[in-house]
Amino acid sequence: DAGVTQSPTHLIKTRGQQVTLRCSPKSGHDTVSWYQQALGQGPQFIFQYYEEEERQRGNFPDRFSGHQFPNYSSELNVNALLLGDSALYLCASSSGATYGYTFGSGTRLTVV
Amino acid sequence: KQEVTQIPAALSVPEGENLVLNCSFTDSAIYNLQWFRQDPGKGLTSLLLIQSSQREQTSGRLNASLDKSSGRSTLYIAASQPGDSATYLCAPGDSGNTPLVFGKGTRLSVIA
After folding, report:
1. Which candidate in B48, B89, B100 is best for mutational testing of the A interface (most A CBs within 10 A)?
2. Confidence class for position B96, pLDDT limits 50, 70, 90
3. Is the pLDDT of residue A104 over 90?
4. Which residues contact B18 (CB under 8 A, 6 or more apart)?
5. Which residue from A59, A64, B45, B99 puts its CA 20 to 30 A from B17's CA?
6. How far is CA A37 from each of CA A34, A108, B27, B83, B102, rounded to the nearest angstrom?
7. pLDDT of residue A23 exceeding 90
8. Do the beta carbons of residue B51 and residue A98 sit within 8 Å?
């Protein structure tokens, strides 16, 4: 049973560009959450998608947007990239609170 | 707003030693608590999930306890091995699909 799959693994972008990260949730999970993790810090919540709607959002600017598809997979889009957006982006899937969250291996984004 | 603190921030021990990692959280109205392991530059691997009705959970050499009323959890690692070297993160969870809140974690080094 495949867990959470994220692509790409690594990405290098130039300031001002736009980027799209992708996530396929664990089988049976219907909720996808995205986190940003800077070096030496814990993951910070960006937003969560359920039934193709953004259900909750953390303290991130509108440059960060997302989408969830009917098959529960999700995309994270970041526009007008800044150097400070360089981080590890983690996707987590879940289905209710009882069974916890499953995380993917992350996408390492470097903005130069 | 939930806040998570993990002590110590870093720990270095010789192989074979038993050790305890501490996690405290400010809002005790939690549904469960998850402990994760993170290798450098990688995603989060779930180690243990404790429901609020439970006092502890065990998996192999790992034992996690939860004292919900005092806002504390501990992760006990028995007979530590170099392969246990990683950052350990705890995350209390609310009901439904409330996003997980993380601290900065404890960076563990087990020296052979």
Report:
1. B100
2. low
3. yes
4. B76, B77, B78, B79, B80
5. B45
6. 10, 10, 23, 23, 10
7. yes
8. yes
> Are the Cβ atoms of A100 and B49 closer than 8 angstroms?
yes
pLDDT for residue B97 is more than 80: no
Rounded distance, CA B32 to CA A88, Å? 25
Chain B residues within 8 angstroms (CB to CB) of chain A: 4, 31-32, 34, 36, 41-46, 49, 51, 89, 91, 93-105
pLDDT at B94 over 90: no
A42-69 exposure pattern, b = at least 16 Cβ within 10 A, e = fewer: bbbbbbbbbeeeebeebebeeebbbebe
Per-residue model confidence (pLDDT) at position A74 = 98
What are the structure tokens assigned to B68, written together?
Answer: 């919900």
Q: Each residue of A68-92: pLDDT tens digit? A: 999 999 999 999 999 999 999 999 9
Q: What angle do CA A76, B91, B22 make, to 5 degrees?
A: 145
| Dihedral pair phi/psi, residue B66, rounded to 5° | -135, 125
- Residues B89 and B98: their CA atoms lie apart, in Å, by 17
User: What is the distance, to the nearest Å, from the Cα of residue B108 to the centroid of all Cα atoms in its chain?
Assistant: 12
Instruction: State how beta strands B32-38 and B19-25 pair.
Output: unpaired
